[in-house]
Amino acid sequence: MSKQHNLEAKRIAGYAAAEQVQDGMVVGLGTGSTAQYAIQRVGERIQEERIAVTGIPTSYQSALRAREAGILVVDLPGVSSIDLTIDGADQIDARFNLIKGGGAAHTREKCVADASERILIVADATKVSECLTAPVPVEVVPYATVGVGRHIRALGGEPVIREAVRKDGPVITDNGNFVLDCAFGTINEPAALAARLNAIPGVLTCGLFTEYAEKITVLIGESEGCRTLTRR
Ligand SMILES: O=C(CO)[C@H](O)[C@H](O)COP(=O)(O)O
Predict the structure, then answer these.
(1) pLDDT in the model for residue 224
(2) For residue range 37-88, what is the model confidence (pLDDT) as tens digits?
(3) Residues that bind substrate, according to the entry (predicted)?
(4) Per-residue model confidence (pLDDT) at position 10
(5) Pocket test for ligand 1, best of 1, 34, 174, 212 (most atoms within 8 A of CB)
(6) Is residue 10 domain-shared with residue 99, that is, in the same domain?
(7) 127 known member of a binding site
């Protein structure tokens, strides 16, 4: 898929998800290029249809984009529940386990997902895979980086500290932490791996989302339109 086709697929998925937002909803706003299209379209619908939407951002990126789009933004502690969250993913398996955190926002994304009644995952077709195989982002308290790396190697992973692109040194998350991208090859038991990663002292959250399949709908953008994926 060319970069242009890929962006168009993301736009189609993001826009389709935004159409599911209804007047009066509290909506979780995901992070990443696909979720940004949904934010943009929700903003347009607020202008065009005069619907009232409260947005709960998952990152500074989504908070800033939501403000630009004219969406009222409230932080997660300001609401008791979220009607619908629209977010992207780095990989989606056949059972709707996810790898997230390509934008280093997976801790807040998981908090928002947890508080949500329904989750729309928006992606292009390259994100869909029978099994999870992509590196797992792990948010780590900087003080604990070396020890966490040792635990991850003992679990069979190969951790790499994520480097910033336009700054020297590591990526710093919105929570002030580092991210280790951890290659495990094919992940046969994602829930068990998530539990072991999350139990390491100094790990804030790993990017394996394994407990939300029941409330997830996956929308895949394609040139002919948007396809809803069936969970197996
Ligand atoms: O998990 C995420 C951010 O932490 C993103 O949702 C994920 O990386 C997908 O991003 P994109 O829509 O740009 O491909």
Answers:
(1) 87
(2) 999 999 999 999 999 999 999 999 999 999 999 999 999 999 999 999 999 9
(3) 31-34, 87-90, 100-103, 127
(4) 97
(5) 34
(6) yes
(7) yes
pLDDT at 3: 80
Ligand 1 pocket list (CB less than 6 A): 10, 30-35, 87-90, 100-106, 109
Q: Which atom of ligand 1 is nearest to the CA of 87?
A: 6
Active-site annotation holds for 44: no
Mark whether 165 and 109 lie in a shared domain.
no
- The rounded Cα 222 to chain-centroid distance in angstroms is 20
Task: Count the domains in the chain.
Answer: 2
3-state SS of 51-78? CCCEEEECCHHHHHHHHHCCCEECCHHH
Atom 10 of ligand 1, nearest CA residue: 32
Of all atoms in ligand 1, which is nearest to the CA of residue 101? 4
Q: 108: domain range?
A: 3-127+211-228
Residues 201 and 93 in one domain: no
